[in-house]
Amino acid sequence: MAKKNRSAPAKGLRGSKVGLALSLGSSALAVIRASKQVRRAKGSHDKLNTADAVAGMLPLITSAALVLRQLRGQRRENGPETA
């Protein structure tokens, strides 16, 4: 069974500002949860668990950055036009 991309917006909201905002919010929550995991791993002084937690955060941060870039691109396209 293929793994679903959980950071992708719902089909009906794909590409909309609401869908991208929901995607960004879920990515932000995942980053917060993963950062707590990093703190716990650091507290146990286990370097392997710390490395695993940090490596797990990288795709979350990347997906959040991609969603932000899409939101900024939409804002530029739909921004106020000065005539």
Kindly describe this structure.
By secondary structure, this protein is mainly alpha-helical. The chain is built from two helices and no strands. The longest helix is centred in the C-terminal third of the chain and has 32 residues. The radius of gyration is 17 Å and the shape is elongated. The termini are far apart. The model has no long low-confidence stretch (mean pLDDT 76).
H/E order of the elements? HH
Kindly estimate the percentage of residues that lie in beta strands according to DSSP.
under 5%
Q: What fraction, in percent, of the residue positions are helical?
A: over 70%
Number of strands: 0
* Mean pLDDT rating: 76
Overall geometry comes to elongated
Number of helices: 2
Rg calc: 17 Å
Q: Give the termini separation.
A: 53 Å
Uncertain segments: none
Broad structural category: mainly alpha
The largest sheet is: none
Write a short abstract of this structure.
The chain is mostly helical. It contains two helices and no strands.
Structure characteristics:
mainly alpha; 83 residues; 71% helix; elongated
